[in-house]
């Protein structure tokens, strides 16, 4: 899958013509590569700036119960809980069409475990799809460094088989 500007996805790696230099002798591996979420946010920013689409990550609904205010500018949430189960990760509008999708990553090489998707998420995707929304799953296979887009219509077949 390419970035929206047409450039192919590449891992964060130094391209120096194969030469080893002192600048690369102390490489830190903690932040290797971009997460799927960062890649999607990068694409969504491009879509917004290019006036192609408006897509945002949906916040998880949280009910705050207790807040400590040691200073007005440094409030600390001490207790909170999830108000309702979240639906999907992203939604927005693309050329007049509602778009809604779930983004997942897996370390598996040949399959994606459907138990990573919840019934309430599938119900939400089904409802959006029935209203003619553009609905899909975006799945990154981390070990292969590949990303696939699975339209809801195809996912639904797998889901029904999984649930039966």
TrEMBL record:
It is found in: Cytoplasm. It is an enzyme of class 3 (hydrolase). Keywords: Cytoplasm, DNA damage, DNA recombination, DNA repair, Endonuclease, Hydrolase, Magnesium, Metal-binding, Nuclease. Its EC number is 3.1.21.10. Belongs to the RecU family. GO terms for biological process: DNA recombination; DNA repair. The keyword Nuclease applies. GO terms for molecular function: crossover junction DNA endonuclease activity; metal ion binding; nucleic acid binding. SUPFAM superfamilies: Restriction endonuclease-like. Pfam families: RecU. Its cofactor is Mg(2+). Its main location: cytoplasm. InterPro entries: Resolv_RecU, Restrct_endonuc-II-like, tRNA_endonuc-like_dom_sf. CDD domains: RecU-like. HAMAP family: RecU. This is Holliday junction resolvase RecU. The gene is recU. It comes from Staphylococcus aureus. GO terms for cellular component: cytoplasm.
């Amino acid at each position: 899958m390419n970035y929206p500007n047409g450039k192919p996805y590449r891992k964060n790696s130094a391209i120096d013509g194969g030469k080893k230099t002192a600048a690369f002798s102390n490489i830190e591996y903690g932040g290797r590569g971009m997460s799927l979420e960062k890649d999607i946010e990068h694409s969504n920013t491009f879509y917004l700036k290019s006036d192609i689409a408006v897509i945002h990550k949906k916040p998880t609904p949280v009910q705050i119960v207790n807040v400590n205010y040691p200073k007005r500018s440094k409030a600390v949430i001490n207790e909170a809980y999830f108000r309702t189960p979240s639906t999907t990760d992203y939604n927005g509008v693309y050329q007049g069409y509602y778009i809604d999708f779930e983004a997942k990553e897996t370390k598996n090489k040949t399959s994606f475990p459907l138990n990573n998707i919840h019934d309430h998420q599938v119900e939400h995707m089904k409802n959006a799809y029935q209203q003619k929304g553009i609905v899909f799953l975006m799945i990154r296979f981390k070990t292969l460094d590949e990303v696939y887009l699975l339209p809801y219509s195809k996912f639904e077949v797998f889901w029904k088989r999984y649930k039966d």
